[in-house]
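Hi R.,

Here are the chain sequences for the assembly we discussed:
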Amino acid sequence: MRSILVLLRKDFTNFLRNKAAVSLTFLIPFVMIWLFGIIFGVNKKDSGPNGIPLAVVNASDNPAAQKLVDALKTEKSFRVITEFVSPDKSRRPLTEADLRPLMQAPDAPFRFALVIPPDLVRTKDFGLHLKIFSNPRNEIETQTVNGILQKTIFTNVPQLLGESLQASAKDYLGSPAFKQFNGTIAGAVADAFGGDKEKIQQRIEAGDFGLGRVIGPAKPADPSLRRLDNNPTPAPAGSAQSTSASAAPAPAASNAAADTLARIVRLETVQVVGANVKSPAATSIVGGWAIQFLLFALSASATSLFRERDAGLFQRLLASPVTRAQILWSKFLYGVCLGIIQLMVLFFAGRVLFGIEIERHVGLLLIVCTFAASACTSFGMLLAAIAPNAEAAQGLATFLIMMMSSLGGAWFPITLMPVFIQQFSKLTLVYWSMEGFSSVLWAGQSFLQILPILGILAGITAVVMSIAIWRFNRGRIFE
Amino acid sequence: MLHLRSVTKRYGSLVALDDVSLDIARGEFFGLLGPNGAGKSTLMSLVAGLRAPDSGTLTLDGAPLTAANAASRTSLGLVPQHIALYPELTAPENLRIFGALYGLRGGDLRARIDAALEAVQLADRRRDAVKTFSGGMQRRLNLVAALLHRPKLLLCDEPTVGVDPQSRLAIFEYLEALNRDGLTIIYSTHYMEEATRLCSRIGIIDHGRLHALGTLDELLAQLPFEEEIRFPATPATAALAADLPVHGELATADAIHRFRPRPDFKLSAFFGAAESHALPGRLFTSQRPTLEALFLHLTGRTLRE
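And here is the predicted structure of the full complex:
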């Protein structure tokens, strides 16, 4: 027993002396839990997505349509865009014709749009007509947006359905019979419940059947229900446009009413980007996972600098006609080559396993992989430059890779995070690498269109490598 | 060939080399003898261009030796203290890398690799990864990796650390043959036996200072005695030890008295004194002066400290 205690004490002493091990065990999980808590708004009453850009085109002159726009503006999940800003900074209301070019642009200001058409209230049959334009490059994000959008529609403009009912009845019966029909109903209501028959008839003709009281005013939705909403999914592969009669249920209190309403709302879904992508889900996620594993591989490779130093190999190399800069650049090029190969192999595996179409984009994909691998390699080099030893570098790498992957959108869409966290996303190479992959594989953009993304990845590489080389020259890795 | 003038190197407040001046002639087998931390590796790294001195100059055949002067390093070969090899690769693959860094290519490189592996008796293991080699085999490969480009000056930084006697002997014989063929060698060690056997000239270094420099005979001549008598430090010998300092130098370490008599003090007088204290003759051993004794004389501490 004494021996076991001695050995136990030895293990704890060793553990406590190893700062990297202590950090990996306690500090890093603590920071990650804290970070995820912020990302998902844990303990906040009104959590959920925030500020997702949503374009709204209102082509209807129905006053309720404007009420719907106003309701969307108050929904914190959305940042509603209703104006088109031309290059000369002049502004005008957005039109449906503006949506496609804007959503297909490399720097698309929004990926979701709601069009309220002139025929919002259907007259030939009972119901509403709305159009949703989307670039559904992430399924979770798309479902979330559709769910919140439909909930807002159903809970804010229920009288539109009454209007539709009146309009279709008028169309079917003709004006004199329609007036008589409404008068008969108003009289029956007044006889049964009291009240002024004329006023009751005016309310009926305005479509006010009291649905607003059944459904109730818009309330902040339960975020868990938002995510679980059963929404119309993006248009099926090969089809850019579809119509759905099923829609998301509203919050629990009004589920039954909302389900009924959902069946009479005609939602026309228009997929603006990626309609021809055969394997949309895999195409949208494989880039994020690939870049994450590449970061792990390259960090491990960069820490080989420590092993070479400890083995005295740098002494031998530097005693030959080789300079420090040559050693570092050879490491960099090795990382880039390894990264390109790994990424291409993973995308090829995605092709074989999930049918991701890479054949049509091999050239551009190779270019994006090169820039992404360069950025990832520079990250690995920086780790080796700032860490005192291989263990510390590994610990730091695990922490930073998890941070960058979560913030950069490799695990879940960044639009589900608080707005201030989304600002940090754009500082990560994971975000820009995924943007590059998505631009090529999902949006099918050209070289010129992805040039800004390549420029940002090249910039990240240049800045991070400069810091790494500066640190290498000041550090003791070569001594 | 190699000249160091007033070379000083500091690491923070630690003075690793303190105003060292040294000349190495072509064809010399020069030994740098000192304990761990004496400054041997620092001196080697300065000559190899791995570090720059804080002051002083180093020249090889008239050309300055600096980290920036990559060309001058083609004349040097460094055998690092560590086994600086890629363990996953085979011996020829390792040698190919190091040879190529010196510009060797094709058939010439292959021929040199074959010759090197033959020379250190590793030709029959050429297909095996280096990590499967014994420590001695790795040390031998570590040595020839520094010789492929046929340097003019070979720097051996404690190349036999952890080596079995058989491999150590093989390394000695190989280095002696290279030196006979004209290669200049600087060999750092804390084993006086190695310096005694291999080196034509020896520098004794400690705390960054070069305390003595010369051939073995020249160095030993600096000792103020010709013989050293050793006997155990026990209560029985305490009275004898108390009488001795007036006749010479008495040092005690590791429960052993070391008495170095002045030249005018006869050994017969010493043994007469021992007999008077009823101490038997078997307690005493007599030794010729060694580099160990010289180091102790010069620095006041042993090579193993």
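Chain B touches chain A at residues 45, 48-51, 67, 70-71, 73-74, 76-78, 80-86, 98, 101-103, 145-146, 149, 155 (CB under 8 Å). The CA atoms of residues 160 and 214 of chain B lie 23 Å apart.

Let me know if anything looks off.

Best,
T.
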